[in-house]
Amino acid sequence: MNKISTKHFILFILGTSIISCKTYLSIFVDVGGRSTWLASILASFIFVCFLLFIMNTFKKTNNFDIVDIFNKSTPKFISSLFLIIFILALFLNAIEAAAVEANVLHSTLFIDTPIWYALAFFIVPSLFIFGKKIRTLLIFLIISFSIIIVNGILFFLLTQSYKDINNLLPILGDKPISNFLYSALMILGSMSSFMIVTPFLKYIDKTEHIRIHSLYAGVISSAFIILSFIGVITAFGPLRAANIFYPEFVLSQRIELAGFLEFGELFFIIQTVVGLFIKYILSTYSILLICNKFIKRKAVFIGVYTFLVFVLSNFLGVNNYMLYDISKYIQGVNLIAFIVIPFIVFIIYYFKFLPKKSK
């Protein structure tokens, strides 16, 4: 069966909404300062509300095909334009996932390993999954995210002794309110990546619990992200946390257990590599689902697509500063492609549905 359940869909949402924010926390702290954790709470509240709105629209209209919703909500030219922007945002997120993963490996443990070499070990295994059914993807997702959850909990527990809660005070004391709001929007843009998996909704077998299970996913995602911001700010302070490329990696290096075990870097590497691989897989698979009718030769399409991702990711991943600067713009693109445009499309479609229901 090429079907998934609403419980499985929780993993799809978690797999896309968490990892980017947790990996490069410093770009958000650089903008929001000490109160970035408060901005993450505000962003999380909006994220959960928007997630429930999207799922409620799917459920109320009994249409779980996002392409069909785009096509029926607005005139053909506008709907096509919106859909192209959505697909380009998926492609951009795939590039981001590949570039950040390669840069993480190059910048932390394997400094002598070139970016292209790290990308090869990241992109080539994905080709196996792209040729398989959703059931194979689901099995991979269940195993991978189970590892990430256990890894995240252990990392949180083992780093508690290295944090000072006083680093969170005074609240809203170091940055103007405009920075606070800007950081909240950036975080919301990162969390909005959950829209990557909406093309999978048409494969859900039974949809009666889609809203409550989406709520669970939203709350869990929010908790992970809020605790991550609190963790790095309490561990380093806002100034230091804003000037480290990968704060959780440096925090993981502090872990020492029983006086002789030092293996904290493993937690960060597992979380980052597996998490970004999941995001890359889901972004690319969603493009394949949306463009399925237009792809005549799937193998050729995947080959060209993979080559473009490899070249662009290698270009971005070589320079940390450029990658971080572009990552800030990616959050803005996500905000438009995954929040603003879907909100317009779904609210129009929702109200178009209501008159039909009343007849």
From TrEMBL:
It comes from the Bacteria. The keyword Repeat does not apply. InterPro entries: Spore_GerAB. Belongs to the amino acid-polyamine-organocation (APC) superfamily. Spore germination protein (SGP) (TC 2.A.3.9) family. Its main location: membrane. The chain crosses the membrane at residues 9-29, 35-56, 77-95, 115-131, 138-160, 180-203, 215-237, 257-278, 299-317, 329-351. One of its GO terms (cellular component) is membrane. PROSITE patterns: PROKAR_LIPOPROTEIN. This is Spore germination protein. Keywords: Germination, Membrane, Transmembrane, Transmembrane helix, Transport. It is a multi-pass membrane protein. It holds the Pfam family Spore_permease. It is found in: Membrane. One of its GO terms (biological process) is spore germination.
